[in-house]
Amino acid sequence: MTTATTISTMQRERGLLAQTVVVIGGSAGIGLETARRARAEGAEVVITGRDPGRLEHASRELGALSSAAFDAADSDRLAQFFHDLPTPLDHVMVTAGRPYYVRLADIDFAQAHREVDEHLWLTLHVAREAAGKVRPGGTLLFMTGTDARRPAAGGPIVSALTAALPALAANLALELAPVRVNLIAAGFVDTALSAALLGDQLEDRRDQLRATLPIGRVVGPGDVAALAVHLMTNTALTGATYDIDGGQQLLSG
Predict the structure, then answer these.
(1) CB 215 within 8 A of CB 190
(2) Which of 19, 122, 40, 18 is nearest to 79 (CA)?
(3) What is the DSSP secondary structure assignment for residue 28, as one 8-state letter?
(4) Structural domains of the chain in order of their starting residue, each with its CATH number
(5) Residues 6 or more apart from 176 whose CB is under 8 A from it?
(6) C-alpha 173 chain-centroid distance
(7) CA distances from residue 37 to 15, 23, 240 in whole angstroms, order as listed
(8) Could you read off the pLDDT of 199-240 as tens digits, one per residue?
(9) How many CB atoms within 10 Å of residue 39?
């Protein structure tokens, strides 16, 4: 075994040992699952969320280093949150926000502005606030969807944002280097948020995906969390968008 192979093996075994991972939107769903996996890999975690009760429960479960309840779209509160964090941080992941599906004629522009705040502007605010806190080689990790791949009625806001974020992540990776910046583009993920969006259509959607996806099952939050931790630990990855949709984009129609 060569010296290089030995070092590589040791790095894989260490995972996130003694590192600090911040998850904005870490009290439920993909964010909580990522925080769990980061803890299992040896990291200390800091989580945020809008719901104080849910956040407190998640923080206790994780044994979180700290937690903060606030609306991530509030740029002043976000700036204060990062100001108060110890330095250095190793990784920051953002999973906050929810998609806004609506036809053009029915757009509530206040809600549409909120959608832009939670995705485009939040990405920029986090990048600026975290840049001086994350160590060289650490990660900023953002999330988007795959809606722009197949435009459809009811998706003008979502599609525009999912098309914009890969370009933004690539630009940030250059500007913030050697801090790494990556983007996860998820298809359907079986979370409480998906259940809330689909209502009584949820089980039909699950059955459809089980029958048609190449992987033969529905993507869960643990799948996304595994990808997120891989992007944190593999220091060769930056400026790219990583799809996780169970092969849905390979299907026609």
Answers:
(1) no
(2) 122
(3) S
(4) 15-191+219-247 (3.40.50.720)
(5) 127, 131, 140
(6) 16
(7) 10, 12, 22
(8) 899 999 999 999 999 999 999 999 999 999 999 999 999 999
(9) 18
Report whether pLDDT(124) > 60. yes
Q: Which residue has the higher pLDDT, 219 or 198?
A: 219
- What are the start-end ranges of the E strands in 9-82? 20-24, 44-49, 66-69
Per cent of the chain over pLDDT 90 is: 67
CB 20 within 8 A of CB 44: yes
Residue 17's contacts (CB-CB under 8 Å, 6 or more residues apart) are: 41, 42, 43
Rounded Cα distance between 8 and 5, Å, is 5
Burial of 202 (0-12, 13-18, 19+ CB in 10 A): middle
**Phi, psi (degrees; rounded to nearest 5) at 115:** -60, -45
Radius of gyration of the chain (CA): 18
| β-pair partners for 185 | 144, 243
Q: What is the DSSP letter of 64?
A: -
The 10s digit of each residue's pLDDT in 51-105 is 999 999 999 999 999 999 999 999 999 999 999 998 899 999 999 777 767 787 8
**Average pLDDT, stretch 10-26?**
83
Query: Strand, helix or coil at 65?
Result: coil
**Distance separating alpha carbons of residues 249 and 179, to the nearest angstrom:** 30
Please name which of 95, 241, 99, 73 lies closest in space to residue 156, comparing C-alpha atoms. 99
Name the 3-class secondary structure at 150.
coil
